[in-house]
């Protein structure tokens, strides 16, 4: 096994994607079951996400789901990828993570992003608009949130039980996120693998402008993306099909559908626009046999200098997805394998 891969942490973000024929509660229970498997396999972290009003995603309350995941696992770190700060008051976020850290000490991560609702209706229901995701607003919210943990909030209010606790914060680097992470001196999560050149530029900028802080003395880079491992390249490719179609549908119809079986997607008659988005969605990921994925991962890690890889793969085939994580654990040489 490559020493480059062996020195890299491997983690997983599960979005609690719903599948055709299965409801949202099933997707949430699937997330908890997957987390148990990832814990046993030796993955470093498992994170959950925040989406609102999306038919294809059940994960709308990440801190609540993170509590269920942490309660069901033993040693794996648990967190969010991420809590979207524009949707929340910083004090409330501090309190929620303070409760999580108090219940599961030393295992909680705080991944933070700045996206707002996917549609105008969702943003209205959340009481937010597109401007809420502005770079300056997010940087100010982030600083306020971290101040509650340091006991230095300008409000003079102490967030309890967060005050004095250490919950590692991470910035999801979309657009200007790399600059925000660097200036705040925080670890950064960046993707996607399909636009490798842009991703590498973001990483270089982050490292060049990083300011050491109480949270991190040096840059810490997590690269995120879709990785599928199977017994053959064709089987790995099939794992990518449901998500590729879901993304293509969202771009042509304005909403994410539940994941469909690969064979049903392959039988669809797509419009030219749908086909273009679908085929684009299948490109640029890391997928193949264990040997093929090992080679691609070594290249990615050498190019990016990343300390950690966050796998974001979703698929209709839950058994195939779990098999992929088991195979990736072997590639990565995780302790439990």
Main structural class: alpha/beta
Low-confidence stretches: none
Helices, by number, come to 13
Number of domains: 1
Distance between the termini: 13 Å
In what range is the share of β-strand residues?
A: 5-15%
Describe the largest sheet. Answer: 9 strands, parallel
Query: What is the total tally of β strands?
Result: 11
Mean pLDDT: 92
Using only C-alpha atoms, the radius of gyration works out to 19 Å
Strands across the major sheet, in which order?
Answer: 3-2-1-11-8-7-6-5-4
- The shape, in one word, is globular
Write down the secondary-structure element order. HEHEHEEHEHHEHEHEEHHHEHEH
Helix content: 40-55%
CATH-defined fold name: TIM Barrel
The name of the CATH architecture is Alpha-Beta Barrel
The CATH superfamily is identified as Luciferase-like domain
CATH class: Alpha Beta
Notes on the structure:
Helix 12 (290-304) packs across helix 13 (318-332). The chain is of the alpha/beta class. The radius of gyration is 19 Å and the shape is globular. 47% of the residues lie in helices and 12% in strands. It has one domain: Luciferase-like domain (TIM Barrel, Alpha-Beta Barrel). The protein is built from 13 helices and 11 strands. The strands form 2 sheets. The chain has a 9-stranded parallel beta sheet with strand order 3-2-1-11-8-7-6-5-4, with helices on one face. 47% of the residues are buried.
């Amino acid at each position: 096994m490559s020493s480059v891969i062996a020195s890299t942490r491997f983690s997983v973000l599960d979005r609690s994607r719903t599948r055709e024929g299965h409801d949202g509660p099933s997707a949430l229970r699937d997330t908890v079951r997957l987390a148990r498997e990832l814990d046993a396999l030796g993955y470093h972290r498992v994170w959950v996400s925040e989406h609102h009003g999306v038919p294809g995603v059940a994960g709308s309350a990440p801190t609540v789901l993170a509590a269920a995941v942490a309660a069901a696992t033993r040693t794996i770190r648990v967190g969010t990828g991420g809590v979207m700060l524009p949707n929340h008051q910083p004090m409330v976020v501090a309190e929620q993570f303070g409760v999580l850290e108090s219940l599961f000490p030393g295992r909680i991560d705080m991944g933070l992003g700045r996206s707002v609702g996917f549609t105008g209706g969702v943003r209205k229901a959340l009481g937010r608009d597109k401007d809420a995701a502005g770079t300056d607003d997010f940087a100010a919210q982030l600083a306020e949130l971290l101040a509650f943990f340091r006991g230095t909030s300008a409000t003079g209010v102490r967030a309890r039980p967060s005050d004095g606790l250490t919950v590692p914060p991470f910035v999801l680097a979309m657009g200007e996120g790399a600059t925000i992470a660097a200036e705040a001196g925080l670890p950064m999560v960046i993707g996607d693998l399909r636009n490798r050149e842009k991703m590498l530029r973001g990483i270089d900028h982050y490292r060049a402008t990083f300011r050491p802080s109480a949270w991190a003395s040096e840059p810490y880079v997590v690269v995120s993306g879709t990785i599928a491992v199977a017994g053959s390249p064709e089987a790995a490719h099939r794992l990518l099909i449901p998500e590729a179609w879901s993304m293509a549908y969202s771009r042509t119809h304005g909403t994410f559908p539940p994941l469909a079986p690969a064979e049903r997607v392959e039988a669809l008659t797509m419009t030219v626009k749908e086909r273009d988005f679908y085929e684009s969605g299948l490109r640029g990921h890391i997928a193949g046999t264990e040997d093929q994925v090992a080679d691609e991962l070594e290249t990615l890690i050498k190019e990016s200098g990343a300390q950690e890889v966050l796998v974001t793969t979703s698929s209709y085939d839950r058994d195939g997805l779990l098999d992929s994580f088991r195979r990736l654990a072997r590639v990565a040489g995780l302790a439990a394998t």
